[in-house]
Design goal:
877 residues, 8-stranded mixed sheet, 7-stranded antiparallel sheet
């Protein structure tokens, strides 16, 4: 009995200890501060990130998120992966220079060079503008030589950081550094012109010499392995002769003489210039000069505007916004070197644009004519055009596509062009056979869709995109949702996935950076990719090499992004972020095998009740799966219900791991501020059906809120809603359909589709396009669907609104007219509803003035606290 009692006593004592510990932990948690105005003043963000060539040093600056707070004029340098830290005060224009440990910066109008490893400093006393020769130990500058005859000549000086001495090249007429760090230049010596190239301080190759007064100019091609130059011969006063030079063979050859070119147009003369020609270039676009003075495009100012129904939309924009008129596109002549003839490809105003291959050797070009569709841009937004094929030999044109908003994309060689057909939703390649001249479907070869079904806005392209080219342009690389597919345009090879379907197998969307297009991939051995994990909503780093994907660094709980790569490719500067982790800077070896955190910019975050984020999944009213972001306060208790603010726009789940800086509001709520005060914030994704945007919102948002209630996360009486701009419209529409919310904030939203449809936006376009092909997703005009426009306008159903509403709309709003918010206010007031309208005079769609941002931040907080937490009613209400 005694033993049993002692055991019971021990259990009781343990329980008491655990309770005390629990209370202590709760007490510590309770001591964490709410994110408020004082926090807004302490948070900083990182800017001007840089990494040295050898990856051993990084630099950055910090900027306060609060614009009113003065930033320190300093740049911080950190040795990597962990080492000394230097703070340079009152400096500017800092750059890493050389291949080792040097920096260049300015202080008090003085340029200094400093070796970070040894501390050695040098004052750069020269007044001549100095440039950096990237990925070398050289700085360079030019200074005028003494006047020598008719030529303005310069001395090029290359200064070596490591040896502290200089190499100079005298009597340079013109020069250019190449990608391989060689210098290509024209030098004048004893009335002779020499074209030379070579590494600074190394052997210099001479590829041409001739009389100095006879030399014109040069132009390198894009590959920098050749080009052309002009010279004067046979006592001509012009530089008529054009020669091609080849840096691979150190050779030159004559191409053509401008004196042999005629264009049969007395109003123009030919500009006798050099071209960046390739070895096989045959067709060059002639540069023409108009003999008469160019027409003045400025329109005399007048107090009278004349609007014409037949005037093109973009022409009207030019007149209204820039007070100038649009001139028709100039005519285009090409010169056929092989056949020694000029070909007129376009008359003045005939086409708006020619799409010409880079190669200079092609059968024809594409031409775009937008004129038949100039008026409709007001409601289509994307400019449609007729697409023509122009035969480069004859100059004859033939229309091949009518009314397309897409443009063909040439491969670098000019042998193939592909286009995405929005109507058929397929990729096509151009067949330039004389009896064909049409585009043919190629994406049917890919076993998966090339169409992004998540694009539900008509003004946006629905294809995943073109990644680039392989096999010297003979293979197009096309994206599907996850991977990249190689399509042989010569039909000699079967299509294959260059990513080996890694993306689809692992549900990772693989792309070349943010743009997605990488150009010619033929000689690129290893390529860094970004990968978006669709299951965990996180971004990572991947590598493509030999058709194999390697996961370099990816974490399902973070977004990882490479900020900079060292010049020697030995290391990277990267950031990783989540809702709870600020995007501080990290150093890593190139394969991320070794990593080290370098900064801790906002250590004060640990003092605040920050909360967490999670991905929530539920089924909408149609039985389809939907997702949203749920932001929960610290120590969330599933046994309790919490006040919830529903805050949304369109889609948010891709931003699940985005860090959100605490700041005053320009329009929307600041999520960390509300979560730290015990609120839950819910951001559902919305998927839209054309012609029914309002009910699309209801289906996805209200089904999500019902899920929160059904799972005991919140309850009716504790739910508010806030949206701005399009989100403001969505919010007001929901209020006409449900009384689920205890309060609402409607920010700068449209209330009446019928009144907003025909007005002009600040960019000079009518708002019609926003409804027919853009965000409001009506898919038709007001005149073809008046009933639908009325049905989706909150104003016409205002009598159904039972929720107290705070309207935020400013009279300087140039995106959504102030009258839209004012009209809803008057309607609700007339109907006896509880409503407030706040107008920050002369402010726009969002707030710029710091005082107004602070005031609006406080008013939103007071409003939600009053309705959802039972706080005192603020006086302004």
């Amino acid at each position: 009995m005694k033993n049993r009692l002692s055991k019971t006593t021990i259990v009781i004592k343990k329980t008491i200890v655990l309770c005390i510990l629990g209370l202590s932990m709760h007490s510590l948690s309770a001591q964490k501060k709410a994110v408020d105005e004082s926090a807004y003043q302490t948070w900083q963000r990182i800017s001007s990130k840089s990494l040295s060539y050898n990856g051993k040093w990084m630099s950055y600056t910090t900027v306060f998120q609060d614009e009113e707070k003065e930033n320190k004029k300093q740049i911080i340098i950190q040795e990597t992966p962990k080492g000394k830290r230097l703070v340079l005060n009152n400096v500017s224009d800092l750059k890493f220079i050389g291949k080792k440990d040097w920096i260049q910066f300015s202080r008090n109008d003085t340029i200094l060079l400093q070796n970070l490893k040894t501390g050695l400093k040098r004052v750069w006393k020269l007044k001549h503008y100095t440039s950096i020769l990237e990925d070398t130990d050289f700085l360079y500058y030019t200074r005028p030589e003494a006047v020598k005859g008719a030529f303005f000549l310069q001395r090029l000086v290359c200064y070596n950081l490591e040896s502290n001495d200089s190499i100079s090249i005298n009597n340079i007429k013109s020069f250019r550094f190449l990608k391989n760090k060689s210098i290509f230049y024209v030098q004048i010596e004893k009335n002779q012109a020499f074209i030379k190239y070579g590494k600074p301080g190394g052997k210099q190759q001479t590829i041409y010499s001739g009389k100095a007064s006879d030399f014109g100019d040069f132009q390198l091609n894009g590959k920098e392995d050749g080009g052309s130059f002009t010279i004067r011969t046979n006592s001509s006063s012009d530089f008529n002769d054009v020669y091609y030079f080849n840096l691979k063979t150190n050779s030159v050859k004559p191409l053509f003489n401008y004196g042999d070119i005629t264009i049969n147009d007395p109003a123009y003369t030919i500009s006798k210039v050099a071209y960046g020609l390739n070895e096989n270039s045959n067709l060059i676009p002639l540069m023409l000069n108009e003999k008469k003075r160019p027409e003045n495009t400025q329109i005399p100012r007048s107090e009278v505007e004349i609007w014409k129904s037949g005037q093109g939309t973009m022409e009207r924009r030019q007149e209204l916004l820039r007070n100038s008129k649009t001139l028709p596109a100039e005519h285009k002549y090409f010169y056929d070197i092989k056949n020694k003839k000029s070909v007129k490809l376009a008359s003045t105003g005939e086409f708006d644009q020619l799409l010409v291959p880079e190669s200079g050797n092609f059968k024809g070009v594409f031409a775009i004519d937008k004129k038949p569709y100039a008026v409709e841009v007001d409601w289509t937004f994307n400019e449609r055009a007729d697409l023509y094929w122009i035969d480069a030999e004859t100059g004859k044109s033939k229309k091949i596509i009518s009314g397309t908003s897409a443009s063909p994309i040439w491969n670098p060689q000019g042998t193939f062009a592909v286009i995405y057909d929005e109507k058929q939703k397929v990729w096509m390649v151009f067949d330039d056979a004389e009896n064909a001249l049409q585009f043919k479907n190629i994406s049917a070869q890919i076993p998966f869709s090339v169409v992004d079904d998540n694009v539900d806005m008509g003004s946006q392209k629905t294809c995943y995109g073109l990644a680039g080219w392989l096999d010297n342009g003979n293979t197009a690389v096309i994206y599907d949702q996850f991977d990249m597919w190689a399509l042989d345009l010569t039909n000699k090879k079967a299509p294959y996935s260059i990513t080996q379907s890694y993306g689809r197998k692992n549900k990772v969307v693989l792309r070349f950076g943010e743009v997605g297009y990488a150009g010619d991939l033929t000689n690129r051995k290893a390529i860094t990719l970004t990968g978006f994990d669709t299951e965990h909503k996180s971004n990572g780093v991947y590598k493509l090499s030999n058709n194999t994907i390697t996961k370099v660094f990816a974490d399902p709980d973070y977004n990882v992004k490479i900020e900079a790569t060292s010049g020697d490719n030995s290391s990277v500067l990267f950031s990783k972020e989540s809702y709870t982790v600020f995007e501080d800077l990290w150093w890593a070896s190139s394969n991320f095998g070794s990593q080290q955190r370098l900064t801790d910019i906002n250590p004060q975050q640990k003092e605040y009740a920050w909360g967490t984020s999670k991905l929530m999944t539920w089924k909408d009213f149609n039985g389809k799966e939907n997702q949203g972001n749920l932001y929960l306060p610290d120590h969330y208790d599933p046994k309790k219900t919490y006040p919830v603010i529903v805050h949304f726009y369109e889609k948010h789940t891709e931003d699940l791991h985005q860090y959100q800086l605490p700041e005053t509001s320009t329009s929307n709520i600041n999520i960390p501020s509300y979560v730290s005060r015990g609120y839950i914030v819910f951001q559902p994704d919305v998927h839209y059906a054309y012609g029914d945007p309002g009910n699309s919102v209801y289906n996805d948002v209200i089904s999500g809120v019902d899920y929160l209630i059904a799972n005991g996360i919140t309850e009716k009486g504790k739910i508010g809603i806030q949206g701005h701009s399009f989100g403001g419209y969505e919010t007001s529409f929901l209020l006409t359909k449900t009384a689920l919310f205890s309060c609402a904030i409607i920010g700068s939203g449209v209330s009446n589709f019928t009144s907003n449809y025909p007005v002009m936006r600040s960019n000079g376009l009518s708002t019609m396009f926003k409804y027919e092909v853009d965000q409001y997703r009506m898919g038709s005009s007001l005149f073809d669907n008046l009933e639908g426009y009325i049905k989706n306008s909150p104003l016409f159903a205002a009598k159904n609104i039972k929720t107290p509403a705070l309207i935020f709309h400013n009279d300087g709003d140039r995106a959504v007219p102030y009258q839209e918010g004012q009209s809803l206010f008057f309607a609700l007031r007339r109907l006896g509803k509880q409503v407030w309208l706040i107008n920050y005079k002369k402010e726009g769609h969002t707030l710029d003035q710091a005082a107004n941002r602070k005031d609006w931040t406080n008013k939103m907080q007071q409003y939600f606290d009053y309705y959802l937490k039972g706080a005192d009613r603020p006086n302004w209400m």
